[in-house]
Amino acid sequence: MAARNVVVAQSGGPTCVINNSLRGIVEGCRRHPGTFGHVYAGHFGIEGILKEELLDLSATSEEEIALLRTSPAAGGIGTCRYKLKKGQDQDFERVVEVFRAHDVGYFFYIGGNDSQDTAHKVSRLAQDRGLDLVATGVPKTIDNDLGDGEFKLLDHSPGYGSVARYYAHYVRQANEENSGSAPADPVLVIQAMGRKIGFIPAAARLADPERTMPIQIYLTESGLTLQQLGENVLRQLESDGRCIVVVSEGFDVGELGTIRDNFGHVQFSSSQQTVAQIVVNYLNTLKFPVPGKARGQVPGTDQRNAIAYASVIDLDEAYAVGRHAVEVAMTEGNGWMATLLRDRGRAGYNIHLDKVPLATVANSERFFPKEWIAPSRVDVTDAFLEYAQPLIGEDWVSVPTVRGLPRFARIARAFAGKKLPPYVPQTYREG
C-alpha cells in the first residue's frame, strides 16, 4: 500500500508544550516513510485546512523540528478558535474535499474538548464520503478540563503541568513582594486563567504546600460570594497583617461585559472589566484593620507561553503523547485519541500511554473535584497536591539561546500547491 499524506493541526489556546506534541507527530511520521508521505500542517488550524493553506512540514529540517521542543505557543504552524458546528455542512464537505485533493490519509488534531469533537466529526464524515481517513486526537489544554471526573479517560492534559509550575513560582515570588511591601500594599489580588474550572488557580497552593503564607484561593466551584471574600480577607489581615488572594477569572462577581470566542467560551481577558479589578475595587471600599490598600495583578497570556517556566515533565509527556498518536493511528486505525493515564498502584509518579475513543472524549468536560476543595472553601486539599505536584517537575528547562535570546524553531513557509477553488469559511460568510 502506498504511503498516504498527513495533515496535523492545532486548535484553541496554545501552551508551553503544544509544539512538543507537534514534534512528536512529525518525528513519528518520519520514522515510517512507507506509511506516511508528506506531512502537512493546517496553517492556523482548521481554518488553514478550509482555505487549503497547508504548510509542507517535510520542507523543514530535522534540526528545526527538534527545536520545537522549547518553542512555546503556536508560532510554528498557528492555531485558531474556529469551530465546525452542527449545520456547517459546507465546511465539513470542504475539509473532505481538501483531504481528498491532497491524498490525505491521516489527520492529527491537537486540542481540547472542541477539537476532539471536530476530529470525531471529520472522521465520521470522511467514512460516509468514502474517503479512507484515519483521524486521531492529541490532547492539549492548560485548563485540564478534558476528560472525565474519575481521571480514567485522561489523567491530565499536556499543558497543565507547565501552567501549574508557572503559578507555583509566580505566587511564591509574589509572596516575597507582598511580605516586603505590606505596610503600603497589604492585599495582593492575582487573577488566574481557567474560565470556570479551578485547576489553574488551585495550582497556587503548590507555591506553599506547608501553608505558611497568608494565601486564599477562590475557585469558581467554591460557591463563595464577593462579600464572603471580603470578610475572609479582613480576618486574614487581622491575624497576619497581609493577604494574597488568588481568584479564578470565572469567579462570580457579577456582570463583566462578557465577550465570547468562536467556541462560545467567555474571554475573560477581553471583557470590559476583569475579576481582579472588581475584587480590588470592592476590597478598597472596606475598612482594613491595617494601613494600606489592595492592589491587583492579572497575568496575561504569558502564563501559557512562558517557556522558561515550562515543566520538563510536561515537555516530555507532550512529546510522548504526540509520538503515541502516530502509533495509535498506524495500529488501531480511525477514531481514537492518544491519552496518558497514571499508574496509581505503583510507588512514585508513573504514567502509561493509552487510547480512548474520540466519540467518548469529544466535548467531554471535567470539573475540579469537589472533594479537593478544602472545608474553608478558600484552599485545596492535600489530595490535590499529591495529584498536581509531580506534574511541575523539579528542574528548570534548558532553552537554547543565541546572543542571550531564545532560539525558537523556524518552520519553512513552504505551502502545498492549491488544487481547489478559493473558499471562505462558512461562519465568516454567515456572520
UniProtKB/TrEMBL annotation:
Keyword Transferase found: yes
InterPro entries cross-referenced by the UniProt entry: ATP_PFK, PFKA, Phosphofructokinase_dom, PKF_sf, PPi-PFK
MF (Gene Ontology): 6-phosphofructokinase activity; diphosphate-fructose-6-phosphate 1-phosphotransferase activity; metal ion binding
Keyword RNA-binding in annotation: no
Pathway: Carbohydrate degradation; glycolysis; D-glyceraldehyde 3-phosphate and glycerone phosphate from D-glucose: step 3/4
Biological process (GO), any one: fructose 6-phosphate metabolic process
GO cellular component terms attached to this protein's record: cytoplasm
Annotated binding of diphosphate, by residue: 13
Phosphofructokinase domain location: 5-327
Compartment list: Cytoplasm
UniProt family annotation: Belongs to the phosphofructokinase type A (PFKA) family. PPi-dependent PFK group II subfamily. Clade 'B2' sub-subfamily.
Protein name: Pyrophosphate--fructose 6-phosphate 1-phosphotransferase
Organism the protein comes from: Aquisphaera giovannonii
